[in-house]
């Protein structure tokens, strides 16, 4: 028999002083109550209850054992109440991993979250790569790419696209590309975390997939270096909106081949479990989704209907 169930049945008999009363309270048969008590006494090798035709009373050993059982059962109930409360109200520690390039957009969410929920503490780490969500002990990751681990839950927050662009200075010494194939003859700056490597992916004016293999004198995992060389006229680039969106909007960077749309990516919330998601994690994800939707226009300058939807 289950040890916890046996302890619970014994405690109820001790409290009520009756096998039949305990059976009625626990919604089991009196014979089942007797079996639990008998199994417990046999396992302990001691009599816990004195039985008469009218009353059931505790032996000295039974009284000591009941006091310990009562405390243990109270602790179990308290643990259940705490766990249930955590499902309803954000509290406790929340450990988050966030891509470095999108951390500044998450920062206001963190600030509002800590203000709204004073019982929460946040441990937020940033980087370009994460060894493993579960292995590193994170509750949640906010990333611009989907991890290869298919066991994780991925909730799409918002869609985004690169912009093909360059600085006006670059065009002073190089002809502007007029078709996608022209990119092969240009110095293309490459970001090491672009998922397709040296093959840049687009959608052509007819809505069909189109690719071009590029090369150039810079390959870097540093967004800061990538941005600096691009602004200095060092070459063409596929630039993410969260790296240089202000420069693209102001004209400091010139958009190229607008009829070709770079493929869509998504900023995602990634977490280990779908069932019984803690209120702390769930609420932070919802607040993050709202934050990114506010920036939908520049995250996807092409205004894709698909990217404007958020879904679990």
Short summary of the structure?
This protein has helices at residues 3-16, 19-26, 30-44, 60-88, 103-116, 168-171, 223-231, 241-250, 279-293, 296-299, and strands spanning 49-51, 56-58, 92-99, 120-127, 140-143, 153-161, 163-166, 188-191, 199-203, 209-213, 219-220, 236-239, 254-255, 261-262, 264-271.
CATH topology of the largest domain: D-Maltodextrin-Binding Protein, domain 2
Write down the overall mean pLDDT.
Answer: 87
What fraction of the residues are assigned to beta strands by DSSP? 15-25%
> What is the helix/strand order?
HHHEEHEHEEEEHEEEEHEHEEEHH
How many strands, what sense, and barrel or not for the largest sheet? 5 strands, mixed
| Number of strand segments | 15
Alpha plus pi helix count: 10
CATH class assignment of the largest domain: Alpha Beta
Shape field: rod-shaped
Q: How much helix is in the residues?
A: 25-40%
| Overall radius of gyration | 31 Å
- Uncertain runs are 304-312
**First and last CA, distance:** 41 Å
What is the CATH architecture assignment of the largest domain?
Answer: 3-Layer(aba) Sandwich
Q: What is the strand arrangement across the widest sheet?
A: 4-3-5-15-6
Number of domains: 2
Which structural class do you get from the secondary structure elements? alpha/beta
Question: Main traits of this protein?
Answer:
2 domains, D-Maltodextrin-Binding Protein, domain 2, disordered C terminus, single chain, alpha/beta, 312 residues, five-stranded mixed beta sheet, Arc Repressor Mutant, subunit A
